[in-house]
Design a protein that fits this description.
about 425 residues, four-stranded antiparallel β-sheet, Endonuclease I-creI, 4 domains, 434 Repressor (Amino-terminal Domain), 8 strands
């Protein structure tokens, strides 16, 4: 092959081969033994073939006995299609919970490249169900893109218009750390969207764990170059009234953590998860109080244990929210809802005075039998040396109403 091929001619040759044979980029990539992304970038003039790629293309041309000039001429006629694509209007995506969740996933484990490629990394030991059932489904539902597995740990798809959309909402291509990215401000206007963004972040960067009686939900570990994102996560949790802590570790990383039982319950109630890894560990803790040591036991063994709780756990609906829609867990959810409501009311009344009047009306033994507790516990409530547990608060208020007590006179007046 004597003709010297100029750098920009490689684009026209590849397009010429495709148009001559009516190939897709995927088919051409297989023919040339190149990756589909490489073919796409060569045709878009985002990259020129290296020595190895040139040899593969030339060998293919010789094998097929193609006329290079003919291919270049044909490719020239179609090469403007990329320019046409570039000047098309930006994607006019409708804001939705699905889009917000996908943005959260990209904020967590995503990479935005200037050529329009979006990459998402994952753990092949724990996240296969999540990638197959949720991440790919979101991409295809929102953008209609075909998704490729670049390796066992990463998927990718190409969409220049989506890359430009991301840039327009404040997520430019390039290093997330160097860009010090934030949660796009438009998602703060709607709490449902904000929950979905946090869900995507949690499912990629975060984890839920229960060990030695201690609970921890972490939205992720973030470098010192991710200050904006950490601040926005904290702002979002405050907007949703979820108490949390930001911890700075010895290596300078930030950790956004929840350690209070009821705050974690509320997190799963309003934010939830679409990653089976998190759902399984949550259910094993909440139903069985089981310490799921995922790194030691492996996700498969934990999944088998979770199937005893719900045999259809692998097909559980996404997003998973700890609310009454999950009828198989109705008993536990009701218990948690009562405790959360009780938590909000616990500091609003003088319980020692309420219990003292109840004892006068019903008797100490009757109250103890009603709550299935000891008379000593009731006495401590009356003395004020112990405050009733959160799970008893609503029942105490109901008992007071049934006994025609004017409980408003026992409300605590708070300063400020």
């Amino acid at each position: 092959m004597k003709k010297i091929i100029q750098p920009k001619d490689w684009q026209k040759i590849l397009i010429g081969i495709r148009k001559k044979n009516n190939y897709s980029q995927t088919t051409l990539a297989k023919e040339l033994k190149l990756s589909r992304n490489s073919v796409s970038r060569f045709e878009a003039l985002q990259r020129f073939p290296n020595k190895e790629s040139k040899e593969k293309i030339v060998n293919y041309l010789i094998l097929k006995n193609y006329n290079i000039n003919e291919l270049i001429n044909k490719g020239t006629n179609y090469s403007n299609e990329y320019k046409t694509r570039r000047i098309k209007s930006e994607l006019n995506l409708k804001l939705s919970e699905k889009l917000a969740e996908l943005i959260g996933i990209i904020l967590g484990d995503g990479e935005i490249r200037s050529d329009g490629t979006i990459r998402i990394s994952f753990d092949p030991k724990k996240d296969v169900n999540y990638i197959d059932r949720r991440v790919i489904a979101l991409i295809q539902s929102i953008l209609g893109n075909k998704v490729y597995f670049e390796s066992e740990k990463r998927i990718s798809f190409g969409n220049i218009s989506f890359m430009r959309y991301l840039k327009s909402i404040g997520l430019p291509s390039g290093s997330k750390f160097e860009n010090n990215i934030k949660i796009p401000s438009l998602f703060f206007k709607n709490n449902k969207y904000l929950c979905a963004v946090l869900r995507g972040l949690f499912d990629t960067d975060g984890y839920f764990g229960y060990l030695n009686g201690s609970l921890e939900l972490m939205l992720g570990r973030f470098s010192e170059k991710s200050v904006n994102l950490v601040n926005d996560i904290s702002l979002a949790l405050k907007k949703l009234n979820i108490k949390h802590k930001i911890i700075t570790s010895n290596d300078g990383q930030f950790k956004v953590r929840l350690t209070d039982k009821l705050e974690i319950i509320r997190f799963f109630s309003i934010i939830g998860s679409s990653n089976l890894r998190n759902i399984v560990r949550f259910l094993l803790w909440r139903i069985n109080k089981y310490e799921a040591k995922i790194e030691i036991e492996g996700f498969h063994n934990l999944l088998l244990k979770a199937k005893k709780i719900d045999k259809n756990i692998e097909n559980i609906s996404f997003p998973f929210l700890w609310n009454q829609n999950n009828k198989q867990f109705k008993k536990y959810i009701k218990e948690d809802e009562i405790e959360i409501k009780g938590s909000k009311l616990r500091d609003n009344y003088s319980w020692s005075k309420i219990v003292k009047e109840l004892i006068n009306k019903r008797g100490q033994e009757s109250i103890a039998n009603h709550f299935k507790i000891t008379k000593r516990s009731v006495r401590k409530w009356r003395e004020g040396s112990r405050t009733p547990s959160k799970k008893y608060i609503l029942s105490l208020l109901k008992m007071s109403e049934e006994n025609k007590m004017k409980i408003n006179k026992y409300k605590v007046i708070k300063n400020g």
